[in-house]
Specification:
40% strand, 251 residues, mainly beta, eight-stranded antiparallel barrel, five-stranded antiparallel beta sheet
Length: 251
């Protein structure tokens, strides 16, 4: 577990449309993000990810700085104590991992608090057990309320039927004149993935690259271990409103 700052509550505004949904998810690319940051993970939806748990005999596992700062003489990540961050995990905590072979023995890891706050940095892979990703989004593992503090967004996934789930979501921007966005309707699902649209959209293309005949909101979701990776096309609300981020299930 990691300590985080408090988050603001999410308010509402409705942006609805007619819903036509299809999903055609393709094979996962093997490339990994070039930098160990949350936003590189969000921008590499098709990358391979691993789910990792801190080993039972590890009481405390500190995160390690991704890069050297101007005031440090040492390159990080490394085992040197000056590279350690205050944030840490404990036995049994779960993170998702990218770039598993980039800076051995370190792996780029992301841990989400139950309030949807992300910690992204390196972990010593020798202190982790790697598990297979097998859960389907149209299952109890995918159902529930999900939150991403980085974009002030929540998503609720409920059982729908054979091949689809019901998704409701809200997002807003900070500031004196915040913008809002809300989605709601069916999202066709396949294994760990689901696609939502308020226009006709097959899910075969990246939401940001799809050129619809009319403006509309496109969202695709991917269940990775205990977290939900979401990508949209920046048309799901007012200016700068986005649902694109990594989400944690609230408790």
């Amino acid at each position: 577990m990691v300590c985080f700052a408090k988050e603001e509550a999410i308010m509402k505004s409705r942006v609805f449309g007619a819903f036509t949904f299809f999903v055609l998810w393709t094979s996962v690319a093997s490339s990994a993000p070039s930098d160990c940051t949350l936003w590189n993970v969000v921008n590499t939806f098709e990358s391979e990810f691993s789910v990792a748990k801190v080993k039972p005999d590890i009481e405390k596992l500190n995160f390690v700085k991704p890069v050297r700062t101007n005031t440090e003489a040492l390159d990080c990540p490394s085992l040197d104590p000056t590279c350690q961050l205050p944030s840490f995990l404990v036995s049994g905590d779960t993170a998702i991992v990218t770039q598993s072979n980039e800076v051995r023995p370190f792996v780029c890891a992301i841990f989400m608090s139950p309030k949807g706050v992300a910690t992204t940095a390196y972990l010593d892979s020798r202190k982790l057990n790697f598990v297979k990703e097998a859960a389907k989004i149209n299952s109890p593992a995918g159902y529930g309320k999900w939150v991403a503090a980085s974009v002030n967004a929540t998503l609720t996934v409920r059982p729908g039927g054979d091949g689809f789930v019901i998704v409701e979501g809200e997002a807003y921007t900070n500031g004196s004149s915040p913008n809002f966005g809300t989605i709601g309707g069916a999202a066709f699902s396949f294994d760990s993935r689901a696609g939502y649209s308020d226009i006709q959209y097959s899910g075969g293309e990246k939401p940001s690259e799809y050129v619809p005949t009319t403006d509309g909101c496109l969202i695709r979701m991917r269940l990775i271990g205990p977290y939900l990776l979401v990508e949209d096309n920046n048309r799901c609300g007012g200016h700068n409103v986005t649902f694109s981020s990594l989400y944690a299930k609230t408790k």
